[in-house]
C-alpha cells in the first residue's frame, strides 16, 4: 500500500481524474501491449508492470506535461502537482461525473 504523501505525488494534479485516466490509457496502449518488450517484469521490478505504469510513468508524464504547459523546472512542476490536486479533481473530474458548485 502506498503512503499518503506518495499518493498525492502520483496524482496528475490539475489534470484531475479525467486527465489521469487519459494519461494512463495512452501509456498503457504505448507500453503494455501484449507480447511487447518495452516494459518487462524484469525492467520494473520490484513493481508489477501496471504498478510501474501508475506509480512511475503516469506521474512523471504529468510532471513533463506541466513543465511544458507552464515552462517551469522539474522541481516547480512537482510542487504544482501537490498544490493543484483538489483543483484538478474539481475542474477535470471523470467524464461522467458531475461536480456541483457550493
UniProtKB/TrEMBL annotation:
Pfam families: RTC4
Protein task: May be involved in a process influencing telomere capping.
Keywords assigned by UniProt, alphabetized: Cytoplasm, Nucleus
InterPro entries documented for this protein: RTC4, RTC4_C
UniProt organism field: Gigaspora margarita
Restriction of telomere capping protein 4 C-terminal domain boundaries: 1-94
Protein's cellular compartments: Cytoplasm; Nucleus
Family (UniProt): Belongs to the RTC4 family.
Main location as per UniProt: cytoplasm
The protein's name in its UniProt record: Restriction of telomere capping protein 4
Superkingdom field: Eukaryota
Amino acid at each position: 500500500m502506498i503512503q499518503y504523501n506518495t499518493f498525492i505525488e502520483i496524482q496528475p494534479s490539475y489534470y484531475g481524474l479525467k486527465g489521469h485516466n487519459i494519461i494512463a490509457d495512452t501509456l498503457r496502449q504505448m507500453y503494455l501491449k501484449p507480447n511487447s518488450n518495452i516494459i518487462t517484469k524484469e525492467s520494473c521490478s520490484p513493481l508489477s508492470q501496471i504498478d510501474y505504469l501508475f506509480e512511475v510513468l503516469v506521474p512523471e508524464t504529468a510532471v513533463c506535461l506541466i513543465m511544458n504547459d507552464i515552462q517551469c523546472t522539474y522541481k516547480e512542476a512537482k510542487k504544482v502537482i501537490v498544490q493543484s490536486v483538489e483543483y484538478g479533481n474539481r475542474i477535470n473530474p471523470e467524464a461522467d461525473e458531475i461536480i456541483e458548485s457550493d
